[in-house]
Amino acid sequence: MGQSADITTRFLAGERAALARLISWAENGDGRFAAALAEVFDRVGRAWRVGITGPPGAGKSTLVNEMARLFRDAERTVGVLAVDPSSPFTGGALLGDRIRMEERTLDPGVFIRSMASRGSHGGLACASVDACDVMDAFGFDELLVETVGVGQAEHDIVSAADTVLVVLCPGAGDGIQAMKSGLLETADVLVVNKADQHGADRLISDLEEALELRGMAPDAWCPLVVSCSAGKAQGVEAVNAAIAQHRAYLAGERLERARAAMRAEQVQRVVGERLLAALWNERGYDRETERLLASAPSPHAAAEQALARILAQVDNIADNLEPSTGSQP
Ligand SMILES: Nc1nc2c(ncn2[C@@H]2O[C@H](COP(=O)(O)OP(=O)(O)OP(=O)(O)O)[C@@H](O)[C@H]2O)c(=O)[nH]1
Ligand SMILES: [Mg+2]
After folding, report:
1. Which residue, by CA, sits nearest to atom 5 of ligand 1?
2. Which ranges in the chain are annotated with CATH 3.40.50.300?
3. Better-scored residue on pLDDT, 272 or 89
4. Pocket-testing residue among 53, 60, 62, ligand 1, by greatest number of atoms within 8 A of Cβ
């Protein structure tokens, strides 16, 4: 407890090492994180969160670097989180990105952090929201969360953002792939990167056509299609402008609703993870599963038994709570 208070004091004094420590706590599912977050949570909500997804090699990291440069030119501070659900260890694929981002790391207005899933602690979507919360509380104006691919895990991570960018590039049938895999539904802004390469115009018109064909509620946000060549530092202003446009669209009640939904999802994730951790920790998992399977005719029957026991415990807890909580509805 004492250590948690010490860290938050240092965090509130603007010490980056304390910020890094809190993110590590979030990443590792450290029990001290919840108390620490509670102490700084009144500062959360000012940053704008942008999630960046898209197929490998589309130029996401290059784009993030250029977006960060433009934000810095406008005297906006930037937190960058690179999340890799496919890699069990930090490093690997993200190392190259880190080196490329190096020129930014000397700038105190930029903070860069990478995260990978490790072993049994699978809640990367949860940890990345936590990391964004602490970067937000630390005072960064813009948060950029890059994921490495377009799978379900990546989707869960970017969909917690205020604005989702899907980055595509010409070639390799990415446009068609994007339409098939539901990326169009995820995107608030579709970025066609590598506009310097052959096929970019075609990809842009394919995407625009696909968006037109898709039915839309009259009041709904229609994803913007913008193109740039991040690798040549060309056209990235249009990407930031599209984000600003989406931000203006959301401002007010829509944003409140979207963020409330995101918070509700985070609560569900935390509950789910805490339950999983409590039930199936590394030591208990095999023995308990074996015991249940030995006494039940099928995996589903074993699951029913496990559930019945948990729910009985929950009922017990609720019964014991009732007298002290009074007559709340
Ligand atoms: N021609 C061209 N190449 C680019 C452009 N932007 C990025 N690239 C190159 O595309 C390659 C991949 O860029 P990254 O930024 O690493 O792509 P990424 O989407 O982050 O890749 P992963 O993180 O591995 O999924 C690099 O060799 C970049 O130099 C561009 O606008 N034009
Ligand atoms: Mg990358």
Report:
1. 231
2. 44-251
3. 272
4. 62
Q: Tell me which CATH code domain 44-251 carries.
A: 3.40.50.300
Closest C-alpha residue for ligand 1 atom 13: 59
Instruction: State mean pLDDT over 201-219.
Output: 86
Does the beta carbon of 57 lie inside 6 Å of ligand 1?
yes
pTM: 0.87
Nearest to residue 227, comparing CAs of 209, 213, 242? 242
More confident residue, 155 or 133: 133
Q: Which residue has the higher pLDDT, 106 or 82?
A: 82
pLDDT tens by residue, 34-58: 999 999 999 999 999 999 998 888 9
Structure tokens of 310? 């948990």
The number of the ligand 1 atom at minimal distance from the alpha carbon of 96 is 16
